[in-house]
Structures are given as C-alpha cells and as structure tokens.
Amino acid sequence: MSLTVSPADRDAIYVLATDPEAPEVAAIMSPKRLNGSAGRTAASLLGLSDDMAGEVELVNPADLEGIGLSGYLTQGLGLNEEAVGRDKMNLDALRSPVILLRGRLAEAGESRILLPRGISYVGKYLLTRTEVGMMPLTAQSASGVIPPVLTGATAPMPRSKAWIASLVIGVGVVLALVAIGLSVL
Questions:
Q1: Separation in Å, CA 124 to CA 72, 88, 167
Q2: Membrane-crossing residues (predicted)?
C-alpha cells in the first residue's frame, strides 16, 4: 500500500499503525534500542531521508495512559476534535507504537510513500483552525499615514551643574587630603 502526501496536506497528520509481529518494523519496537532516534528510524523505515525525520514521530500508546491516543492528537497536537472523535475507539484501541507523519514533508511537492509490510494507514487528521476576526480600528492614529517625526541636528549635551559641582567637591577633597598629608610630615 502507498500513501500520497501533497502540499495541500501541510496541516494534516497521518496516523500509521504498526504490527509488532512484522519483522519489517522490528527496528521501532524496542525503545531502548532507539536511543533518542525514533523519528529518524521511523523515517528510514518509510523510505524518507534523514532531513525529513523531524516530520515523523513515533508514539507509544502505552505512554498515553489517561488521555489515550485520541486525547494526544486533539489536546497535544491540536487536531480537529470532531474528526478524531469519529475514530476515537479505533485510535484508543491501538496498543503497539504508532507513527505520526506530518503533511509538511510534502511542502516541496507531492510525496508518495510506500508503506512496508507491518505498517497500515489509520487516518488523516487536520489541525483545528480558529478564525481570527478583528474589529476595525477606530482610533485617529489608525487611519492614514503618520508622518515621521523630524528632528534637527543634535548638539553635544551640555554638562549639568550637578556634574560640575561634584567635580569641584572632589578636587577639594583631594587637595584637603594632600594638605593633611604634608602637614603630618
């Protein structure tokens, strides 16, 4: 079986189930052997390059106790609750590792992925998009173009009187200390 991912599927996540009995998927069945490279291992299993490994996630449903795979998809990844809800029983019934494939991997062009024996397509789910509505701005500054503020050439900053007073006091203290030092000798 093959899976076709097009640039129009950029916001989709494909859920792929694995069969733990299939020798083709043995590489992803042991989390200890993956040692932090689960995405890369799953990507190579699907025939994807290493640079696409970031678009592949390996999820173990046993790690999702309490929310299940459907909860992870909706609450964790923001996928459409209605679409995931229709497949909730099937998704939460999966017990072996699941491969999540992001549609972004096809941004440059259509990708056809040949699914090896032991990996089956479960479904495609889209991100939930909320419409952003903005009221028109009514402030006077929001209409038209605001001209730039023109400033003249800047002159050097004049010294403040406090700075000069501090300098005079400092010099006076130094002179007093010198005078005391000379009188002691």
A1: 15, 13, 76
A2: 162-184
Segments of the chain assigned E as strands: 2-5, 12-18, 56-59, 98-102, 111-114, 119-126
Please tell me the distance from the alpha carbon of residue 39 to that of residue 62, in angstroms, as a whole number. Answer: 18
Question: How many angstroms separate the CA atoms of 17 and 106, rounded?
Answer: 20
* Residue ranges of E strands in 36-183: 56-59, 98-102, 111-114, 119-126
Domain boundaries, the chain: 2-126
**pLDDT tens across 136-184, in order?**
666 666 666 656 666 666 656 566 677 777 888 889 999 988 888 887 7
What is the torsion angle, in degrees rounded to the nearest 10, for the CA atoms of residue 7, residue 9, residue 11 and residue 13?
-130
The residue with tokens 């090896």 is 116
